[in-house]
Amino acid sequence: MNRRQWVLQSMLRSSAVALGAGLLASVTLAPLVAQAADDAPDALIKRVATEVLEAVKADADIQKGDMAKVMALVDGKIMPNVNFNRMTAMAVGRFWRQATPEQQKRLQDEFKTLLVRTYSGALAQVKDQSLFFRPLRAAPTDTEVVVRSEVRGKGDPIQLDYRMEKTDGGWKIYDLNVLGVWLVETYRTQFAQEAQAKGIDGLIDSLVARNKANAKPAKAG
Asked: Where are the domains of the chain?
């Protein structure tokens, strides 16, 4: 793992609690599904993030590191609120257009698994973090916005911004900024190097191997 990758992983671990909270949009609470589809993007994230942070803090199993429960939470609640097709296409870059439909599906599935496992590990570390949001700068007619927030707890505040787009099913997240680094841009650099050297199938194989390695239980220290 090179330094850029290490920095990215460190930032993801430290900020994943906020992402997990922010992404748990309309599916988190059944009575709010219809309302969530009509919410402004910042109001949607802010309202539900508060609910989710409290829920995670109150869940003893997650606090103990029950990865099966955390994985179910992330995969079932968070991921449906992300435009993964767009996120994956942006991360793969120009190689996305060269991929067959089958390759695109495999890339999307493996990228999703990579992110789910990354954020699952960090969600178990929720302690006393709080979320603070900046005023949204957007016009009523905008179909893409950036919601800016900070995660505050011990240590310095962590910048966490969301790029969101308006869809027929409500607002969806397609990128995020952690401490000034956009996730998609960082992965695009990694993926381009691998695809350039090993082709699209090689990139897929690399993601598969990384996900298998991440799935192995950590050794006791």
From this structure: 3-214
CATH 3.10.450.710, applies to 3-214? yes
Please give the share of the chain, as a percent, with pLDDT higher than 90. Answer: 31
DSSP the chain: --HHHHHHHHHHHHHHHHHHHHH--TTSSGGGHHHHHHS-HHHHHHHHHHHHHHHHHT-HHHHTT-HHHHHHHIIIIIGGGB-HHHHHHHHHTHHHHHS-HHHHHHHHHHHHHHHHHHHHHHHTT--S-EEEEPPP---TT-SEEEEEEEEESSSS-EEEEEEEEEETTEEEEEEEEETTEEHHHHHHHHHHHHHHHHHHHHHHHHHHHHHHHHHSPPPP-
Q: For residue 147, which of 73, 76, 49 has the smallest C-alpha distance?
A: 49
Instruction: Read off the tokens for 25.
Output: 């949009």
Q: Determine phi and psi for 79, rounding to 5 degrees.
A: -60, -30
Find residue 166's DSSP bridge partners: 171
Residue range 94-117, pLDDT digits in tens: 999 999 999 999 999 999 888 877
pTM of the model: 0.75
